[in-house]
Amino acid sequence: MDLNQDAIAAYLGRIGFSGPVHTDLETLSSLQSAHMTAVPFENLHVFHGRGVSTAAEWSIPKVVEQGRGGWCFELNGAFSTLLEALGFEVTRLAAGVLLNDGVPPPMPDHLTLRVDLDEPYLVDVGFGDSFISPLLLNLDAAQDGGDTAYRLRSDGEFRILERASDDGWAPQYRFTLEEHKLADFTDRSDFLQATPSEHWTEAPFATRLIDGGPDRVWLLRNRIKLRRDGQVSVTAVPADRWAETLHDWFGMTP
Predict the structure, then answer these.
(1) Staple 81 to which of 56, 172, 178, 199, CB 3.0 to 4.6 Å?
(2) In what order do the strands lie in the sheet containing 206-209?
(3) DSSP label at 184?
(4) Cβ-based neighbours of 27, under 8 Å, separated by 6 or more
């Protein structure tokens, strides 16, 4: 999908980006944090069984015109299309999430992005509470992700994204550098939508950065969680206030 100048302007307006656009690290970092602030990582269409697509022709109107968010296939699909329209060199990568005890899934279940500047960077606006600034792809050492430290460890053909935790390094996902098209993720997207899952189909959620991060808000089934200045608070949300809370914090309806 090609974006014309009006579509680019509408997308930049949606994420609140008004600065000059250059194909450099400063602009890329600002675009990533702006996107993660304005566009929530959420599962409401999937939870309600409405069906979603991996095509940019689906995800961009959903994000820009409808003011909604989505999961990785939608958010990173839309964002990669915007980056390409702005002149960035983008490669779409297939990843396997490792949050379940570090065990990779049988098929890749996450879309992440490589963006080549003077060096290659890992960029991701569709993994929830994750790094908010680009990570050097070829650096094994710890690096600042804007919220905490991350590292990209090599393991054979794979790169493994790890996040610093109190217990050491927690694996997030693994990926190869093989290029993929958005259509390559369709079968996995359809499978995840059709398969009962505590994370995707059985409980609604939405999360986004606050003011560029690292502060963040999560709205879960019956509570709202806020992280401000490193402190986390959790408040119960009654069922009859859930839609109102969603609108107040995310500007969306269920």
Answers:
(1) 56
(2) 41-42, 206-209, 216-219, 223-228, 231-236
(3) G
(4) 19, 20, 21, 86
pLDDT per residue as tens, the chain (254 positions): 999 999 999 999 999 999 999 999 999 999 999 999 999 999 999 999 999 999 999 999 999 999 999 999 999 999 999 999 999 999 999 999 999 778 889 899 999 999 999 999 999 999 999 999 999 999 999 999 999 999 999 999 999 999 999 889 999 999 999 999 999 999 999 999 999 887 899 999 999 999 999 999 999 999 999 999 999 999 999 999 999 999 999 999 99
Which secondary structure element, helix H or strand E, spans residue 44, and what is its range? helix 44-47
Question: Can you read off the two tokens belonging to residue 164?
Answer: 């610093």
> Which amino acid would we find at residue 120?
P
Cβ atoms of 208 and 162 within 8 Å: the answer is no
Going from the C-alpha of 71 to that of each of 67, 136, 142, 239, the distances in angstroms are 14, 23, 27, 23
Between the alpha carbon of residue 173 and those of residues 76, 77, 86, 90, 176, the distances in Å are 15, 18, 27, 19, 11
The DSSP symbol for 202 reads: S
**In the chain, what's the furthest Cα-to-Cα distance?**
51
Q: What is the pTM of this model?
A: 0.97
For residue 6, how many other CB atoms are within 10 A of its CB? 8
SS3 content of the chain, % helix, strand, coil (to 5): 30, 30, 40
